[in-house]
Amino acid sequence: MQYAPLGNSDLNVSRICLGTMTFGEQNTEDEAHDQLDCAISKGVNFIDTAEMYPVPCREETQGLTEQYIGTWLKKFGRREELILASKVAGPGMMEYLRNGPQLTPEHIEAALEASLKRLQTDYIDLYQVHWPARNTNFFGKLGYESDPEESAVPIEETYACLSRAVEQGKVRYIGVSNETPWGVMRYQALASEHAWPGVISVQNPYSLLNRTYEIGLAEISHRENIGLLAYSPLGFGVLSGKYLDGNAPADARLTRYTYFDRYTSEVAVQATRAYVELAREQGHTPSQMALAFVNSRPFLAANIIGATSLQQLEEDIDSIDLTLSDETLGKIEQLHSQHPNPCP
């Protein structure tokens, strides 16, 4: 395993991070514990979760992911060896959660206390804003449109509350997720203005099928030392090739949940097929080539992988041992030119 500091922090995180949003939906509590044991045995020390997990979001299952991690943490015992990340939900979804989550101090404080209780810990290493309160581009939305009647909670109000959580020792560091270049730099400006703890990470999608992070945010990662925590590095699993030629594996995510249609468009399928064929030509499994590409990016802090089986989890973690050749990387760039960002 490879390790490096996360942004301007003393958190030394594994290059591979265990994503957990299947815990409580596609994975039972015992299976979740097995995955955590497996990941730790392979050197992973970084675990990412969120108050809204598992996905898809349902009132009946909300919070189960953190709960399963908490019961495992109690057995594991060595909390100080792990770096645990969670997230507070933004507005616009889950009316059953606090009558609709908001990024106000009242909501953030309630969310944090609930997460700490479920996780059975008294602090979270990295606490992230899951998505912005304002109207902007995230979750695949392209083409920014202003809203003259927007009444979103200001970033300053949210950030002040997160900073207090750091002062109280309930949170060690702050991160953002599904953010834009403007949003990240607004956090940076407020941190400088108020002497608040700076944002150390951005958790955004990044894969062979979606390299939009490179447009603006990669430069911020470099110049501000704010690392990318890449989610969906396999494009919701499609880069494994398992959905090609009309295949619909039982219990696979896109088989069960058909509303992620950006991964199944004609251009997405064409690009996926090209990357899968390239991986096989180069003697790699499609999943490992796709993950190794993400692992190789200079702006990456950690690659968040998720799995439903131990076999899949082990293959994904072992991508850390694969270094892609210059020839392979060159051919990936050629394919990217032909199929630029088909799944933003």
Written account of the structure:
The chain has 344 residues and is an alpha/beta fold. Helix content is 37%, strand content 15%. It is built from 11 helices and 10 strands. The chain has helices at 29-41, 64-76, 105-119, 155-167, 181-194, 217-224, 253-256, 266-281, 286-295, 310-317, 326-338; strands at residues 3-5, 12-14, 16-19, 46-48, 83-88, 124-129, 171-177, 199-205, 227-231, 300-305. The strands form 2 sheets. Strands 3-4-5-6-7-8-9-10 form an 8-stranded parallel beta barrel, surrounded by 6 helices. Strands 1-2 form a two-stranded antiparallel sheet. Strand 5, helix 3 and strand 6 form a beta-alpha-beta unit. Helix 2 packs across helix 3 (105-119) and helix 8 runs antiparallel to helix 11 (326-338). The radius of gyration is 19 Å and the shape is globular. It starts with a strand and ends in a 6-residue tail after the last helix.
Molecular shape: globular
Strand order of the largest sheet: 3-4-5-6-7-8-9-10
* Stretches with pLDDT under 50, minimum 5 residues: none
Strand content: 5-15%
Quantity of strands, as a count: 10
| Secondary-structure element series | EEEHEHEHEHEHEHEHHHEHH
Derived structural class: alpha/beta
Major sheet attributes: 8 strands, parallel, barrel
**Total of DSSP H or I helical runs spanning 4+ residues:** 11
Average pLDDT for all residues: 94
> Gyration radius, to the nearest Å?
19 Å
Topology readout:
Blueprint (H helix, E strand, L loop, with lengths): L2 E3 L6 E3 L1 E4 L9 H13 L4 E3 L15 H13 L6 E6 L16 H15 L4 E6 L25 H13 L3 E7 L3 H14 L4 E7 L11 H8 L2 E5 L21 H4 L9 H16 L4 H10 L4 E6 L4 H8 L8 H13 L6
